[in-house]
Design goal:
The structure is a homodimer. Chain A is α+β, with helices and mostly antiparallel strands. The first copy, chain A, folds into 2 domains: about 325 residues, BirA Bifunctional Protein, domain 2 (2-Layer Sandwich); about 90 residues, Anticodon-binding domain (Rossmann fold, 3-Layer(aba) Sandwich). Helices cover about 35% and strands about 20% of the residues of chain A. In chain A, the strands form 5 sheets. In chain A, strands 1-5-6-14-11-10-7-9-8 form a 9-stranded mixed beta sheet. Chain A has a 5-stranded mixed beta sheet with strand order 17-16-18-19-20, sandwiched between helices. In chain A, strands 2-4 form a two-stranded antiparallel ribbon. In chain A, helix 6 packs antiparallel against helix 8. Chain A starts with 10 loop residues before the first helix and ends with a strand. Chains A, B: Its EC number is 6.1.1.21.
Chain lengths: ~450, ~450
């Protein structure tokens, strides 16, 4: 039986997922990110010491554990890839070259209550850069460009990366005279859910804001631009603070760099806050055009304090593609398809079982030149063997020639059948592998 | 801190692991196996109903679960990929095309006591074929050929696949007059561990064998051949049984097919038993030359009864590469290396921060043509930037030309520096990606 929150794709959907992973990985490597996998488990205290405590952790216990042994060193499944990465970096700091750029494509688990659209097991594709001491800001400008390259190479709806900077918000709130900036951020983060009036009410009730201060916070959250004009709009609100200036300068760099290298990809969106996460500066969210209501498919930000060893800090910046989440939404809307349900390009027809090894050699010759091929499962009538291919969307059936006659290959879509030699025949490039397409 | 049994590779080792996974996947797809991933968890009763009960299962519990809710539907992490696959097939039988060929490359978990060389989390790469009703035997001959193609394309020690057939053993024991064939198999399976004399003793003590019967079982286990001669050797032992004949005929097909299509890959080894697993016919184990003492790196077999729905059976045959186990052994012996620790092929040197976007464009031009490139982290002295590349094994540093001069690219291994244009320069194929090599 299916288990709520643990999605399983059928093979055609898994093919699409693999194509997404391949594209992500190839792009990450083009930018110089090194591959990493961390173990799936962390000690419970590592999991609870960072990030949101609201993330529900799955604990592990050994079925056959001796009595009384369970509580010793409790292990839990990781709920993201950033916390394990920070642990890995501090644990291996002496062996790594800094700045350290790595990507990590793995499952994560969250023991949430089952509900619509919430996964308990899902795949994330992360990149992060960390350094000892301080990390140059230009890596914050790289994150959206990498993601833009990943997503633009796939048949997906157009992606729009929304960027903000926590220093802008915190500096602005401070400059306004509000002290509990974390609480202000928490309330403003709910804007899309509860609406402007409730945000104002709650700012007044829970963050000690006056009506005027609350309205100013809301005005800040409503600012958005594809170019540097957001900075002017913020300055027009008349708030002064050095942290605000620093944040605006950083956000400008992200927006302007993207505008030059990938126009239309990035927008400054001053309501983006990223909840209670560990971010300290730049924050990213990503929406797919036409799928905005499903939320962000790719998020991240800058964190100064996630990893420390003694007095030494390892600041980082990273971004994470929610692969399962994104594909779950698109599969649910039938927005992605694939041209066949198996990798096979050619079925070698089997005239009779005595010829199986001959047919095996034909299939092997095709494979040696990179053409996915399999021999028919039984020596059924050719009509049934063609059906075997047709049901799976396999485009070609290969017929061994009888008694010295040459082999032939048939495109079962067009019916066209031509003489062919397994050591030289080429499948058209468009037919060699299954083709992924958007709707 | 490292957690016993949960290995973590450094990025160079992960690169090697990924190369193994890529090779496995590409080969599996060439043979027409479709990709599948199943969820990491199964209900506890699914995990315990099949396979060995000695496999220790990791149970999951939600940290924030309501009291009394835990026992409802206990979930455990899967301990192999065959049991979840069998569950997936029966659950989705109506949606799948049979025979169904799939591959699955995933982590599995075993809550074993920590000990040398035993992993609690490890990666497996499986292929299986299942069918409704009956599954043609020729798929049993395909398994070793696929594995042979995977492993021969990697810089690994030569692989030798050892094949046996449970019908041979069971038929032989039965023909000898022994009734508890499962117990005989269990004892004979310990041959390499406890030696011949103890096997004889235990067969007499626990399986009701006479000295003569026990010796005959041992003689069978000592038979081994690269060709069909094992069948004559078995027949010389003078035991008659129809199941024995069936098993010998099947084993001959596996050995002879491999001998013709991939000579030297497969050997009939009649002591191979595969413990208490669910296999009913062909069984496979694989040893790497020079690493025999570390045990099998790739195992599997035919199972007639793993998956059933009502009266309908879904027999299958499969084989599984123990990727973590194999690489753990080879890493431990320093038998595998990689030419650099990052994917980057070219570092674009940064004369000063004002030129960063110019350098970004150079790197982007290289990436567009598939050359992994990154811009230096800071505008340090060129010597330090070259060191950045050198420490990571990156072969090339790119220098932007000054004031209208052309760019140059330097091979920092040879010191050779030539004029180059980022839109046309090609990296030598051997330098484009990190190269994996055996010792």
């Amino acid at each position: 039986m299916p288990i709520s929150g643990f999605p399983e794709w059928m093979p055609p959907q898994r093919m699409i997922e693999q194509r997404v992973i391949d594209r992500a990985r190839a792009t990450f490597e083009l930018y110089g990110y090194a591959p990493l996998e961390t173990r799936s488990v962390e000690p419970l205290d590592t999991l609870l010491s960072k990030g949101e405590t609201s993330k529900e952790v799955y604990l592990l216990s050994r079925l056959q554990a001796e009595e009384g042994q369970k509580s010793d060193d409790q292990l839990g499944l990781h709920f993201d890839l950033t916390v394990p990465f920070a642990r890995f970096v501090t644990e291996n700091a002496g062996k790594l070259q800094f700045p350290f750029k790595r990507y990590q494509i793995q499952k994560v688990w969250r023991g949430e209550r089952p509900q619509e659209g919430r996964y308990r097991e899902f795949l994330q594709a992360d990149i992060d850069v960390v350094n000892r001491g301080t990390l140059p800001f230009h890596y914050d400008t790289e994150m959206p460009l990498v993601i833009g390259d990943v997503l633009s190479g796939l048949p997906l709806p157009k992606a729009r990366i929304q960027v903000n900077n926590r220093k802008v918000c915190e500096g602005f709130y401070r400059g306004l005279g509000l002290e509990d900036t974390a609480q202000v951020l928490r309330v403003v983060d709910k804007l899309d859910k509860i609406g402007a009036q409730k945000v104002i009410d709650q700012l007044i009730e829970t963050a000690g804001a006056s009506q005027k201060q609350a309205e100013a916070c809301l005005q800040l959250a409503e600012i958005s631009s594809e170019d540097g004009s957001f900075a002017d709009a913020v300055r027009k609100l008349g708030v002064q603070d050095p942290l605000l200036d620093e944040g605006l300068d950083e956000l400008l760099q992200v927006v302007e760099t993207a505008r030059e290298l990938n126009p239309g990809l990035v927008v400054a969106e001053l309501k983006i806050a990223r909840g209670l996460d560990y971010y300290t500066g730049t924050v990213y969210e990503t929406q797919l055009e036409g799928y905005e209501r499903f939320g962000s498919v790719c998020s991240g930000g800058r964190y100064e304090n996630l990893a420390t060893v003694g007095n030494e800090k390892f600041p980082g910046v990273g971004i994470s593609i929610g692969v399962s989440r994104m594909l779950g939404v698109l599969f649910g809307q039938n927005a992605l398809g694939v041209s066949r349900s198996v990798p096979t390009c050619v079925v070698v027809a089997l005239p009779n079982e005595e010829l199986r090894r001959t047919c095996d050699r034909t299939a092997a010759a095709l494979r040696r030149r990179g053409i996915p091929a399999e021999v028919a499962p039984t020596a059924a009538k050719f009509g049934k063997q063609i059906q075997y291919a047709d049901k799976r969307g396999i485009p070609y059936v290969w017929f061994p020639g009888r008694e010295g006659e040459p082999d032939t290959v048939k495109d079962i879509r067009s019916g066209e059948q031509v003489e062919a030699d397994a050591t030289t025949w080429e499948a058209p490039a468009a037919d060699l592998y299954p083709v992924i397409s958007g709707s």
